[in-house]
């Protein structure tokens, strides 16, 4: 791995208190030796951070924007008629495409902002004045694999670090007993681990999976976290590992890799205790559990994810992702969409309420969305196909302008037509809210400086409070 | 409708002359004046008007300007709205920049522009009589200065005599002369020779990826005749375990995996044959030049007299190198899918064999190395004419070649056709229009075809296509084509005066024979450097996959060149190269240098580029796993075969077939499944390389999950328990500790250690768990995990 010096060292020094510090101690020392400087110098503030942590609510599969946050009366009025303009050059399932199909759901305006929300999100609708709804999102790839990677890493062509990894790399993390980036029950398909990997960034910046799709949030565990021996035994073993290590160091002389490795056992030992404590949701009051819908089978799983997210977040984990898997509604949209929305609606609302009550919302950036939206034309009669050309994501919390709807799609909801926001733009905005300029957070790899937004991305000022 | 035929020529960037001045009908004139001209002025002129400047150098103020176009090529193709950049841009097609950038034109205006172009782009008063095309890249141009051509790696290796230098008692091989010369110039002393105990451990872990058994250690220590170490090296190289270790390192370099990754994770059910072929060739010490030629063009190599069918099959299997890369199979744009596959082949070939990042030249002339896009598309022409896939639609299937008589091949292609047809019906077709009965019939037929397909022995391999040159894709975009370039090899390494490729076919065999030869200055150096890195932890060039301007310069180029030339002279024998390196004094150095050297070197050469000591290296993920299994007496050394019990095209990321993927087996790690985007979690924790990209170097990170694995991982729990059980046969605690140390660390415990363990053991009631704890500590120790 190639490592740059300069500003990156300053970023890394922030990691000094973090999960990754051990891996980085060595690098820092190397660089310090090379530069002859003090690696622990504080990082000069760039942009003032508006949020400290991110909770990403990822709706895998591509939730329909025209059935959730982007009502299209004209689409309803022209239900059954052909699309009056050209379809995109590249379509995922051209043979299955039919005519226009209106949303089966009613929309109502909510809150002071008066933003329209579909009937399938009644609880989230109550928070509409906290939301910054972007109805003009777009990306390029019409397939899950490509679009999911585009969202997570900024590219569908190469293996690149994930958004969360860039944030941990840039900001470090606040809890030395937990990973800086946790993803709960994420799918291993469609790019899988590449979506939360550190790629060429230091390994400690990668996402640590807590369970995967298919495991329930209640059973999700970090890899190898379950103790194989009683704690007293492990403590004795740890003592011995330390002792053997010290003996060896007397022979070899100082060696950062060897020292770092001994320290990593100590960290692992602490993490083993810290993780179950975070996951002990039963210590939350009944009322809190109910707030997240944990008392109801339909909402229990995502409710647990959201509550876990809050608990990780308040303990200083920089980036937490909750994953709702199953938004790919190629047919039977009405019932599937209703079920999926139901499973996340109350938990999300609960998370927003809880963060607000605890005074955490101001410093936590909550992001909702999937890899793309869906077509206004029918597929298989009663479903919708993938649509990367126009869809909705929303943000809430730290530094976000609340109660607005930004951008719009055409009257049918096919293309974003006004104030378009590409994933790159939203990435730039997210980094900005976290106190990082996207053009400045770079890493030298394979001979050139890489960044999350590559050569693209513009901060969307309208989204920033 | 009139479509001026010459405009099609214009699109290719050639100058053209119109035959007759086109006239514009009244109707077209009205349409243009009322709908198009105002639109252009209102929507486009801010940036593309007569006085405006923009990044693309595109003006839209005259027909000529549109036909000339900007940097991406002509803006319009009269008569063809769907392939006109202007229309794609206002439609916000992903292939072009969105225009206008953040907002989209009203739909009726988009439709008007398309209609106008469909009518042939009639512009009253203007005619495209002498529309000048932009000066596009000349395929023969070579826009790099002399300094960039003079880069060391592009010059042939220089023959050098090993320098006359001392101290003579540290010279075992010419390699040492090269090393010692640098050291003495810096006033540094080489570290002392390591102990024989360490040496046997180092060599065995290096060549086999397994620690020596106590008996192997004793045998080496007991051999006091001269040449004992050389004999040990020979013995180690003769074992099939050698190919399993070094084959795996080559698999890193060629991004080997058993699934496509990227989107759905479909099973490359026949990739294992390539893996086994690689292991087999390392064991057979196959000459490296042939090894490369066969991977690039084994299907085209003419048969030798008296060869067996299995020899031909082996060469076909070798071309798996070209086809087992990551693929975005759910890609709706067929040209993009094809060109992404070509790019993977060029990138892998460049990094793996030549140490060049050729992939950088896909969208623009390489910024740092003298590789223009014209050289990229010259290679792309070769690979585009190499058949990897049966088609390029979504969920398309990759090509396979039957390993048997022609009749079997025929049977295979029939089945491929059947599977493809049924898949198309079931996946892409409208299932709503099928009756249940119909659908079931299709599904049953598909299942039967897939089962029959599985039963045919076959290789993931390529077919050769017809010859044909390719145009440069401007900015890597297949919708905007530049001039055509002749197929040829990168000029910086192959010369500027290349004879045209002789047909028929893609020219791949010619390419292979050039890559796998000393006619290029890179390939031998790149391989020698990889082997050196495997033994010393760092290559003589520390960027093993990049010998270009942004790679690192060689720490000792005379040595690198000397090794490369000897390697070629030895008939490209990799085993001979191991012998050369390992029989040097440099290889035998301790990781611990004398105090004086350490102090001086920490200032002069903290990175150990001069090689004043051996580098300490952490075990690779597979070495750790295999060693644990071997210590437990559980390692299953069966060679070869399929790793996953599933059928080709099964989706391995779903819940169903994934359960068939077993990592809790006891075979050597090289035989475990390698799933892209879902690498085995133990390997992931220990820096196994991402199998989506060629990787010549493993990271050595230290993260908490590694410690957690050693504390809690099932593999560690099981193997330490097995070792502890075996220790119970020893007569007492003293003997047990002795055995535990000999097996795991290869040495006896020191007195202070004995004492410490005694008190450790005292704290336990249960003897077995106590000894399991001892073993867990020992396999967790730095001494075990690092190769000294």
Largest Cβ-defined interface: A-B, 99 and 98 residues
CATH class of chain A: Alpha Beta
**Portion in strands of chain A:** 15-25%
Order of helices and strands of chain A: HHEHEEEHEHHEEHHHHEHEEEEEEEEHEE
Characterization of the model:
The complex is a heterodimer of chains A (465) and B (788). Chain A is of the alpha/beta class and 465 residues long. Chain A has a single domain, classed as Alkaline Phosphatase, subunit A (3-Layer(aba) Sandwich). Chain A is built from twelve helices and 18 strands. Chain A has helices at 7-14, 21-35, 73-77, 122-125, 144-153, 163-171, 231-252, 256-279, 286-291, 297-314, 333-357, 423-433, and strands at 53-60, 97-100, 107-110, 115-118, 131-138, 181-186, 208-212, 319-325, 364-369, 373-379, 383-387, 391-397, 404-406, 408-409, 416-418, 421-422, 443-445, 448-450. In chain A, strands 1, 5, 6, 7, 8, 9, 12, 13 and 16 form a nine-stranded mixed beta sheet that branches. A three-stranded antiparallel beta sheet of chain A has the order 2-10-11, with no helix packed on it. In chain A, β10 and β11 form a beta hairpin. Chain A starts with 6 loop residues before the first helix and ends in a 15-residue tail after the last strand. Mean pLDDT of chain A is 87; it is low at 1-45. Chain B has 788 residues and is mainly alpha-helical. Among the domains of chain B are: 6-118, no CATH class; 168-247 and 520-616, no CATH class; 710-787. The longest helix of chain B has 23 residues, at 26-48. Chain B is built from 34 helices and eight strands. Chain B starts with 5 loop residues before the first helix and ends with a strand. Chain B is globular and about 110 Å long. In chain B, the strands form four sheets. Chain B has a two-stranded antiparallel sheet with strand order 1-4. In chain B, strands 2-3 form a two-stranded antiparallel ribbon.
């Amino acid at each position: 791995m190639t490592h740059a010096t300069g500003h990156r060292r300053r970023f890394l020094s922030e990691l000094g208190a973090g999960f990754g510090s051990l891996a980085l101690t060595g690098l820092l020392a190397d660089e310090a030796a090379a530069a002859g400087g003090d690696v622990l110098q504080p990082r000069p503030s760039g942009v003032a951070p508006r949020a400290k942590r991110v909770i990403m609510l990822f709706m895998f599969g591509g939730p329909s924007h025209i059935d959730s946050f982007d009502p299209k009366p004209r689409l309803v009025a022209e239900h059954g008629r052909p699309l009056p303009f050209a379809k995109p050059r590249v379509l995922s399932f051209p043979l299955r495409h039919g005519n226009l199909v209106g949303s089966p759901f009613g929309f109502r305006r909510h809150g002071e902002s008066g933003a329209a929300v579909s009937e399938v999100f009644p609880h989230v609708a109550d928070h509409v004045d906290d939301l910054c709804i972007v109805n003009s999102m777009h990306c390029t790839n019409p397939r899950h694999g490509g679009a999911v990677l585009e969202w997570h890493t900024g590219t569908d062509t190469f293996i690149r670090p994930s958004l969360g990894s860039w944030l941990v790399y840039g900001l470090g993390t606040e809890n030395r007993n937990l990973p800086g980036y946790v993803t709960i029950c994420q799918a291993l398909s469609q790019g899988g681990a590449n979506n939360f990997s550190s790629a060429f960034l230091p390994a400690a910046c990668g996402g640590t999976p807590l369970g995967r799709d298919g495991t329930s949030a209640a059973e999700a565990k970090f890899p190898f976290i379950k103790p194989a021996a009683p704690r007293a035994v492990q403590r004795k073993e740890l003592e011995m590992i330390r002792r053997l290590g010290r003996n060896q160091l007397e022979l070899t002389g100082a060696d950062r890799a060897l020292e770092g490795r001994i320290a990593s056992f100590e960290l692992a030992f602490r993490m083993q205790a810290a993780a179950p404590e975070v996951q002990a949701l039963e210590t939350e009051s009944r009322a809190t559990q109910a707030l997240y819908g944990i008392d109801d089978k339909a909402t229990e799983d995502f409710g647990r994810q959201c509550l876990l997210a809050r608990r990780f977040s308040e303990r200083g984990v920089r980036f937490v992702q909750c994953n709702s898997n199953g938004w790919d509604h190629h047919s039977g949209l009405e019932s599937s969409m209703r079920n999926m929305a139901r499973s996340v609606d109350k938990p999300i609302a609960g998370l927003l309420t809880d963060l607000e009550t605890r005074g955490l919302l101001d410093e936590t950036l909550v992001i909702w969305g999937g890899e793309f939206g869906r077509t206004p034309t029918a597929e298989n009669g009663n479903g919708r196909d993938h649509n990367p050309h126009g869809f909705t994501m929303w943000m809430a919390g730290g530094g976000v302008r609340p109660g607005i709807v930004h951008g719009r799609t055409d009257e049918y909801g096919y293309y974003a037509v006004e104030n378009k926001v590409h994933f790159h733009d939203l990435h730039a905005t997210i980094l900005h809210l976290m106190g990082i300029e996207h053009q400045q957070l770079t890493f030298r790899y394979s001979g050139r400086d890489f960044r999350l937004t590559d050569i693209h991305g513009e901060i969307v000022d309208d989204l920033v409070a | 409708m009139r479509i001026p035929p010459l405009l099609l020529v214009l699109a290719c960037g050639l100058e053209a002359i119109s035959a007759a001045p086109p006239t514009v009908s009244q109707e077209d004139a009205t349409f243009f004046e009322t709908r198009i001209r105002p639109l252009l002025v209102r929507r486009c002129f801010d940036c593309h008007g007569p006085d405006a400047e923009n990044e693309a150098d595109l003006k839209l103020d005259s027909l000529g300007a549109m036909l000339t176009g900007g940097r991406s090529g002509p803006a319009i193709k009269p008569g063809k709205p769907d392939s006109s950049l202007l229309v794609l841009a206002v439609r916000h097609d992903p292939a072009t920049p969105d225009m206008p950038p953040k907002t989209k034109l009203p739909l009726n205006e988009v439709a008007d522009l398309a209609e106008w172009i469909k009518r042939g782009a009639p512009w009253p008063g203007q005619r495209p009589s002498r529309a000048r095309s932009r000066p596009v890249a000349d395929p023969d141009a070579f826009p790099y200065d002399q300094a960039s051509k003079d880069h060391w790696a592009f010059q042939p290796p220089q023959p050098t005599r090993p320098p006359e230098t001392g101290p003579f008692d540290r010279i075992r091989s010419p390699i040492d002369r090269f090393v010692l010369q640098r050291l003495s110039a810096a006033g540094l002393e080489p570290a002392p020779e390591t102990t024989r105990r360490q040496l046997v451990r180092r060599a065995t872990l290096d060549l086999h990826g397994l620690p020596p058994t106590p008996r192997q250690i004793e045998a080496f220590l007991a051999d006091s005749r001269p040449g004992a170490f050389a004999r040990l090296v020979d013995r180690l190289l003769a074992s099939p375990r050698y190919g399993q270790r070094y084959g795996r390192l080559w698999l890193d370099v060629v991004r080997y995996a058993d699934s496509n990754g990227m989107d759905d994770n479909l099973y490359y059910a026949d990739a294992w044959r390539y893996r086994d072929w690689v292991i087999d060739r390392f064991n057979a010490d196959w000459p490296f030049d042939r090894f490369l030629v066969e991977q690039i063009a084994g299907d085209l190599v003419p048969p030798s007299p008296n060869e067996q069918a299995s020899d031909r099959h082996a060469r076909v299997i070798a071309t798996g190198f070209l086809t087992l890369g990551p693929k975005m199979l759910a890609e709706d744009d067929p040209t993009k899918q094809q060109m992404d596959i070509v790019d993977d082949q060029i990138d892998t070939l460049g990094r793996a064999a030549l140490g060049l990042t050729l992939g950088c030249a896909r969208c623009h002339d390489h910024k740092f190395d003298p590789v223009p896009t014209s050289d990229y598309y010259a290679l792309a022409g070769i690979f585009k004419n190499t058949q990897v896939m049966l088609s390029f639609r979504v969920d398309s299937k990759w090509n396979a070649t039957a390993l048997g008589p022609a009749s079997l091949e025929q049977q295979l292609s029939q089945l491929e056709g059947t599977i493809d047809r049924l898949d198309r019906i079931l996946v892409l077709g409208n299932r709503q229009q099928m009756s249940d009965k119909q659908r079931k019939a299709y599904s049953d037929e598909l299942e039967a075809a897939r089962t029959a397909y599985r039963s045919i022995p076959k290789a993931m391999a390529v077919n050769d296509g017809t010859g044909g040159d390719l145009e440069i894709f401007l900015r890597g975009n297949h919708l905007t084509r530049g001039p055509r370039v002749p197929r040829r090899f990168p000029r910086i390494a192959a010369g500027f005066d290349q004879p045209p490729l002789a047909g028929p076919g893609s020219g791949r065999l010619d390419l292979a024979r050039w890559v796998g030869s000393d006619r290029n200055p890179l390939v031998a150096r790149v391989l020698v450097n990889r082997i050196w890195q495997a033994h010393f932890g760092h290559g003589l060039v520390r960027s093993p996959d990049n010998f270009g301007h942004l790679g690192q310069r060689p720490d000792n180029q005379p040595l690198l060149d000397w090794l490369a030339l000897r390697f070629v002279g030895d008939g490209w024998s990799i085993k001979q190269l191991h012998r050369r390196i390992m029989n040097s004094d440099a290889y035998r150095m301790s990781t611990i240098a004398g105090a004086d050297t350490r102090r001086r070197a920490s200032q002069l050469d903290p990175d150990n580029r001069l090689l004043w000591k051996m580098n300490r290296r952490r075990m690779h993920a597979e070495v750790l796993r295999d060693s644990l299994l071997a210590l437990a007496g559980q390692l299953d050394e069966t060679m070869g075969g399929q790793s996953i019990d599933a059928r080709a095209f099964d989706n391995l990321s779903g819940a169903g077939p994934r359960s068939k993927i077993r990592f809790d087996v006891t075979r050597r790690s090289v035989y475990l499944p390698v799933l892209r985007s879902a690498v085995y979690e133990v390997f992931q924790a220990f820096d196994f390389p991402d199998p989506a990209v060629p990787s010549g170097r493993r990271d050595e990170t230290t993260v908490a999950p590694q410690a957690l694995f050693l504390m809690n991982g099932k593999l560690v729990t099981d193997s330490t328990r097995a070792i502890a059980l075996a220790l119970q046969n020893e007569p007492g605690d003293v003997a047990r500790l002795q055995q535990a140390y000999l097996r795991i660390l290869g040495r006896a415990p020191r007195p202070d250690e004995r004492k410490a363990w005694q008190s450790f053991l005292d704290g336990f009631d249960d003897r077995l768990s106590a000894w399991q704890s001892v073993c867990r500590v020992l396999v967790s120790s730095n001494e075990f995990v690092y190769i000294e």
